[in-house]
Write a structure and sequence with these properties.
By secondary structure, the protein is α/β, with parallel strands linked by helices. It contains eight helices and ten strands. It has a six-stranded mixed β-sheet with strand order 6-7-8-3-9-10, with helices on both faces. It has a four-stranded antiparallel β-sheet with strand order 2-1-4-5. The longest helix has 16 residues. The chain is globular, with a radius of gyration of 19 Å. One of its GO terms (cellular component) is ATP-binding cassette (ABC) transporter complex.
Length: 238
C-alpha cells in the first residue's frame, strides 16, 4: 500500500526583485491511501502530476509529511522503496543506458543474486516477454519509439517490482504503440499508477486522481473523475 500523509512539496524560486529566493508550493498538502490495482493520474501540464508520481518511489522527497510504501518511508528507506517501486519515464531514452537491449536488461538484473549465465537467460526471457527477443543484440538507438518504451518497461519489470509507476508512458507514441503499451500495463500483476493525458487509458483504471494547481481536486471512479477534469479544462478556456 502507498500512503501519503499531509505531504507538501516545495522548491526555491528566484525573487523577481532580486531579493532572497522564495519558497513556492509545487504539490500539497496531499493525504492519500492508494490500494487499488490500477490508478490513473490526470491533469493539465504543470499541475503537479509528475511531482506526485515521483514522490511514490522517492525520486522527489516531501518538504513535510511522509510517503510510505508498504510501511517503508521514502525519506529513510529510499533504496528499499525503489526495489519495490519501478518507475518508467515519458521518454525511454532517459533510462536506456546500455548499447543493446540485452545489456540494458542485464544491467537491471545485476542487483539480483544471479550468475552471468543466469542473468543472460533472464534478460533474454524478459525481452521475449515484450516481443523484443529478435532485437536483443541490435543497437538500442535503432529501435522504434514504441520498442524503446517496451525495452524501458522490460528493464524495470525484469526485477519484478511490486508496484509500477509510469509518468506519461505513451505521450511520445503513435496510436498503435499507445494501444500496445496500454494493453501491456493492463495485463500486469503489479499495482500500476499511471500519469496520463490519454483519457481513454485513464478510463480503464479502478480509480482516477485529478490534479490541478498542485492539489488533488477530485478522487474517484473514472467516469466522474474524467467528467470533472473536462469541466475544469472547459472552465479554464472560458
Amino acid at each position: 500500500m502507498i500512503e501519503l500523509d499531509d505531504v507538501l512539496v516545495t522548491a526555491f524560486s528566484p525573487d523577481p526583485a532580486g531579493d532572497a529566493d522564495r519558497v513556492v508550493r509545487l504539490l500539497g498538502p496531499v493525504r492519500l491511501r492508494l490500494t487499488e490495482r490500477r490508478i490513473a493520474v490526470i491533469g493539465a501540464n504543470g499541475s503537479g502530476k509528475s511531482t506526485l508520481a515521483r514522490l511514490l518511489n522517492g525520486l522527489v522527497l516531501p518538504a513535510s509529511g511522509s510517503v510510505r510504501v508498504d510501511g517503508l518511508d521514502t525519506a529513510v528507506d529510499g533504496r528499499a522503496v525503489r526495489r519495490r517501486v519501478g518507475f518508467v519515464f515519458t521518454n525511454p531514452d532517459a533510462q536506456i543506458v546500455m548499447p543493446t537491449p540485452l545489456e540494458d536488461v542485464a544491467l537491471s538484473l545485476r542487483r539480483l543474486p544471479l550468475t552471468a549465465d543466469e542473468r543472460d537467460a533472464a534478460a533474454r526471457a524478459a525481452l521475449a516477454r515484450f516481443g523484443l527477443a529478435d532485437r536483443a543484440e541490435v543497437p538500442a538507438h535503432v529501435l522504434s519509439g514504441g520498442q524503446r518504451q517496451l525495452l524501458a518497461l522490460a528493464s524495470v519489470l525484469a526485477v519484478e517490482p511490486a508496484i509500477l509507476v509510469c509518468d506519461e508512458p505513451t505521450t511520445l507514441l503513435d496510436l498503435r504503440w499507445r494501444t500496445v503499451v496500454d494493453d501491456l500495463l493492463d495485463g500486469l500483476d503489479q499495482q500500476v499508477v499511471v500519469v496520463t493525458h490519454d483519457l481513454d487509458a485513464a478510463a480503464r483504471a479502478d480509480r482516477v486522481l485529478v490534479v490541478d494547481d498542485g492539489r488533488i481536486v477530485h478522487d474517484g471512479e473514472p467516469v466522474e473523475a474524467i467528467a470533472h477534469y473536462r469541466a475544469l479544462m472547459t472552465a479554464l478556456r472560458a
